[in-house]
Each structure stands twice: as C-alpha cells, then as structure tokens.
Amino acid sequence: MKLLQTDGLTAFYGDFQALFGIDFEVGEGEIVAVIGANGAGKTTLLKTITGLLAAPAQAVRFQDEAIGGMTPAKIVQRGIAMVPEGRRLFPSLSVEENLLMGAYRKRSGPWDLAAVGRLFPILKERRHAPATALSGGQQQMVAIGRALMSNPRLLICDELSLGLAPIVVKEIYEALESVTASGLTAVIVEQDTTMARNVSSRLYCLQEGRVSLTGASKQISQEQITAAYFGLPENPAPEQRAQA
Ligand SMILES: Nc1ncnc2c1ncn2[C@@H]1O[C@H](COP(=O)(O)OP(=O)(O)O)[C@@H](O)[C@H]1O
Ligand SMILES: [Mg+2]
Question: Dihedral sign, CA of 53, 59, 64, 65?
C-alpha cells in the first residue's frame, strides 16, 4: 500500500522553480532515502510534503488523501512528522520542554516522554538542561524525540548526520533503525550515500529538481549513484571518457 505519493510535484520560491515534476512514493513500512548534492531540492521536497511550501492539492497524497497545500499543523495531525535540517530546537527551553512541543498536536500512540527516554537514555538524564547545553548529537536526539512525540505514521528526517562525528551518526541511525523496526515508515534525506544505501530499502537521487535515479538500494551501484549525483553520463562515449 502507498502511504505517501507525489505526482508531478513542482515547487517554487517566488519565480525560482526548485522542483520539476517529482514522482515520489513511500510504501507502508518502508525506509526510503533521498540523496543528492547541495541544492538538488531534497529539503524543498520535504517542505512541500510537510506543508511548509505550497503544493497543488492533488500533487501530494497521504493515505489516499490530497494533502498538498494543507497547513503544517494539519499535516502533523494526519501523521507526518519532520526532523528538520539544523534541528531547530527552542534554545531557551529545556530538553523536556522541547520534547513536549512535539506532543502539542499529539496523536494517540506509543510515544511519550518515557518512551523517548528509553530510546535515548541520555535525554532522560539531562531532561532539565537547556537544549543548547547538549552536544550536537544529543540535540539531534532531541529533534528526533520531538518528532516522535506526535506519534507519526511517517517520520521524515533531513540530514541527520550533518556536522556530527561518525560514531554519533552510527548511534543515531541505530536508534532510528530500532524505531523503524517496530513498523514506523521513514524518509531519510542523507548526504552520506553509503549510510543512505545501508539504512534504506529504496532510494531516490535528486539532481537540479528532478529525480535522476531511483530503485532498490541494494541493487544500485556506487557508480550509478556518482553519475546520478553529479549528472555525469552513466556510460560515457569513448571520446568523452578520454576528455575526462
Ligand atoms: N528559501 C529559499 N528561497 C529561494 N531559493 C531557495 C530557498 N531555499 C532553497 N532554495 C533553492 O532551491 C534549490 C533547492 O534547495 P534545497 O531544497 O534546499 O536543496 P538541498 O536540500 O537538496 O540542498 C536550490 O537552488 C536553493 O538555492
Ligand atoms: Mg537540504
């Protein structure tokens, strides 16, 4: 069953067109990765799905309902939660208060402060600390916890690993895998293509606002990804190869 689907999705910032007809699908229980160079349109895709950017109503469907252009609040209530790029925590609030912000439009489900504390014990320990007192990795855990607090059916993560040490990234992805193993569907935007392939069942590569590659993650080679990332021809003609 298709949980989320975009159909010929376009997006604009004023006169600037950032997405050109994106067909994107996420099945129930899947983990789908979105990769692509800086400026390819990954965050823009997520913003149209979560209502932060205008989209034609029928261009985004969630559980067979047209949600394009709905307000972000309504989309959270439908069951989509986002961990935004750069985390966007409330700096003056404590860890616990930040987590509770995610429960503002809470749906029913297993996630509450106690459940987030079991997933990330350090957050329970530091629950009264201001969010800014935490390390980058711990702040990312708060951002994930906050998204989970709304009890989403679909969790969307934008560049979880940005600026974090590899060991912290590993820890965060392991936690995420334990969450998705319990049945939560996820879309992961990730610059680390190896990580993206490892954690996902399918992936999409965006290039300049278009899908340049899609398929089962395990069946896509690193060469195909490199070509789709940078817009290189997959099988360059001999004369092109000689010039390269
Ligand atoms: N707020 C904005 N105003 C104008 N252009 C933007 C804005 N945000 C992103 N863009 C442009 O849209 C394109 C896609 O950006 P983005 O979706 O952020 O890429 P990615 O997340 O893949 O790095 C880029 O060319 C970027 O410069
Ligand atoms: Mg981005």
Answer: positive
Q: How far is the CA of 206 from the centre of ligand 1 (A)?
A: 12
Phi, psi (degrees; rounded to nearest 5) at 127: -60, -25
| pTM as predicted | 0.91
- DSSP state letters, 137-183: HHHHHHHHHHHHTT--SEEEEE-TTTT--HHHHHHHHHHHHHHHHTT
Residue 61 has a pLDDT of: 97
Tens-place pLDDT, residues 75-88? 999 999 999 988 88
- Give percent helix, percent strand, percent coil of the chain, each to the nearest 5: 40, 25, 35
Give the other-Cβ count within 10 Å of 149's Cβ: 25
- For 24, the 3-state DSSP assignment is strand
Which residues form the pocket of ligand 1, taking CB atoms under 6 Å from any ligand atom?
Answer: 13, 16, 18, 36, 38-44
Q: Report pLDDT digits (tens) over 90-106.
A: 888 999 999 999 887 77
184-194 pLDDT, tens digit each: 999 999 988 99
Name all domains of the chain by residue range, CATH numbers in brackets.
Answer: 2-79+153-243 (3.40.50.300), 88-151 (no CATH)
Distance 207 CA to ligand 1 centre (A): 12
Mean pLDDT of 126-151: 94
Q: How far is the CA of 39 from the centre of ligand 1 (A)?
A: 5
Report residues near ion ligand 2: CB below 5 Å.
42-43
Ligand 1 atom 2 nearest Cα: 13
